[in-house]
Amino acid sequence: MKDxxxxxxxxxxxxxxxxGLFSGFAPGMVTLPKGFRVSEKFAPLPVDVIFEKDVAVTxxxxxxxxxxxxxxxxxxxxxxxxxxxxxxxxxxxxxQYDDLFRLLGMDTSRLSGLQxxxxxxxxxWCARGYAICHPDPRGTYKSDGDARWWNRAEGEDFRDLxxxxxxxxxxxxxxxxxxxxxLTVSQWFMAAERPAHLAAIAPWExxxxxxxxLIMRGGIPDYGFPETLRYAYIxxxxxxxxxxxxxxxxxxxxxxxxxSPAFDQIDVPAYVVASYSNAIxxxxxxxxxxxxxxxxxxxRIHATMEWPDxxxxxxxxDLLRFFDCFLKGIDNGWEDxxxxxxxxxxxxxxDRVNLTAxxxxxxxxxxxxxYLDATTAALNTEQPAAAKASYDATEPTANLxxxxxxxxxxxxxGYPRLRLYAEAEGADDMDIFVLLQKLDADGTxxxxxxxxxxxxxxxxxxxxxxxxxxxxxxxxRLRASMRHLDAERTTKDVPVHxxxxxxxxxxxxxxxxxxxxxxxxLLLYPxxxxxxxxGGWNTLGGAMPGTRNLAPDNHGRHVIHTGxxxxxxxxxxxMPFAQ
Length: 579
Description:
CATH class of the largest domain: Alpha Beta
Strand content: 25-35%
Number of helices: 12
Number of strands: 28
Strand order of the largest sheet: 2-3-4-6-5-7-8-10-11-12-13
Structural class: alpha+beta
Largest sheet: 11 strands, mixed
CATH superfamily of the largest domain: Alpha/Beta hydrolase fold, catalytic domain
Shape: globular
Radius of gyration: 24 Å
CATH architecture of the largest domain: 3-Layer(aba) Sandwich
């Protein structure tokens, strides 16, 4: 296995906003009584909760990590849900996170404040007969060792903790995992290790291939979010550094294989939650769903952002039914739940949600090719005559667009795949960004803030960035020299690039470029438009608040060829939809 790059950990600023009520290191056990409140901002506990703090757990190599365990006061043994992430096992009530959720318009007054950031609320789960395990992984906070993250070695540590949870005297031997983002990514890696006591997982949006989903998406370096992560947690020793990894290993090699789980090894029941709109998580969540080996797996595609979606009472009740079925053995009808529950974005206040299907894309969605026409700037079902158009690749606002108009209510749903025939003038490479949008009948691009706060502050934040909080359409990107496809993994729906070689362009060379756009579900009414935009800049901006946008390496002009021998096309599933 290739060695990962390590760096000294950057310290978090020592301000009160980053600390929670129980952030201090104080091994021991206490009972939090019914009615206990972290503060007036949070809800009182509905039941007594045993809080075991800073429990030492030994990994297979002798390294000690520390975890908090919150469990009900009950004689019977209970199942365990683990929330694995390095953001601090006791920082869920820190003002930093509470202020963030309130900014987004989320009502946190229903939560106890005992939850880990992005994780399950112990108040809800302990009241229903579950224990919650909150670890600080290796190298974070007081846990020993060097911090390692988003790789198979971390999956081994998580497996060790699952086995520890399954053998405690208060445990019924059944362990699950839950949570957003990092708490999803870690589940993929752990489940692929097949711990004996793992009974089910619930990945709720998260990357599944760190090279393809984050730091080198489309073969283009993108260090904005990894820079932010350098300050997301602290530890005593060193931490792995994704940016140093990318600089030392710009092509996808054995090191990056270790940063992608062995999905075919995952065999436990899985409740997967995804969205079309998460700038960081969408492709990886759908890939994890497609590739995991589990025979019992369910997918729910929602129409908002993962944080508010996770804490909705209806969705917590849904997750409870799932875990009750597989961690408690309750015959509650969960296994009759539709395999797919999906959404269609209306983007005008009438999104359709919880539509059911046996597969994704839905079986009634017929994949069709829409050909680009450089002469008319249209998307047509018939191949046009040969033509070409170009744009200045150094100009952020320069682009080409191709549009079709719906003549009846139509759902565009599935995995958009774009084939472009392109050449570079004055350069030996191209960074190309594409965006598939819905326009109203007047030609105005429609977009949708995905959190409850849709006011002026959020509109300003998302105007030129923070794309994780505002859905503007399905996007894709590709560096032309990284265009080589992995023939074994590529399907009709999803092109998969090998990213293992660099193939520079020569003067006058026209190359075929295949883009895997984010999966999507868009509902168009008669007279509305679907527009494909092609340019040399990422117009969506940085993914998170404060995350810088990537800088493309473009020169000269990009020439797009259409029709004839170079029939560029967009392939996407369509189906009629009753209004």
